[in-house]
Design goal:
alpha+beta; 3 helices; rod-shaped
């Protein structure tokens, strides 16, 4: 077999690889666009979290931006309780928002085998 024939065979084998790489790049670009849309949607979505005690309600977006905090009259009169409940409630709201965001973004990366999900 001549060198020219070997080169042609190697190029043919590699040609499929190049096509696959191009397809993967296109899939990643599509995933990036979907992730951007998802993050934009998460920024607009508001999650309402009520404290276990019921005295604090926090509204937080899917991108972890606190929009509103409502405090009951009973808690306003006891500053120590208020501080404790606020800290717990804000942390819970952030955790729930992060879980929601991770769940939505995980759906986009699940089939890629990138170890991101």
């Amino acid at each position: 077999m001549s060198r020219q024939t070997n080169k042609q065979k190697n190029l043919q084998k590699g040609g499929g690889g190049i096509k696959n790489k191009f397809k993967q790049i296109q899939q990643l670009q599509q995933m990036q666009a979907e992730m951007k849309k998802t993050r934009s949607a998460l920024a607009k979505e508001v999650l309402t979290v009520v404290s276990a005690e019921g005295g604090v309600t926090i509204e937080i977006t899917g991108d972890q931006r606190v929009q509103n905090i409502l405090i009951s009259e009973e808690l306003l009169s006891n500053s120590k309780s208020l501080e404790d409940v606020l800290v717990k409630s804000v942390n819970e709201a952030i955790q729930q928002s992060q879980s929601m965001a991770a769940s939505r973004l995980e759906k986009l990366t699940a089939g890629l085998g990138l170890g991101l999900s």
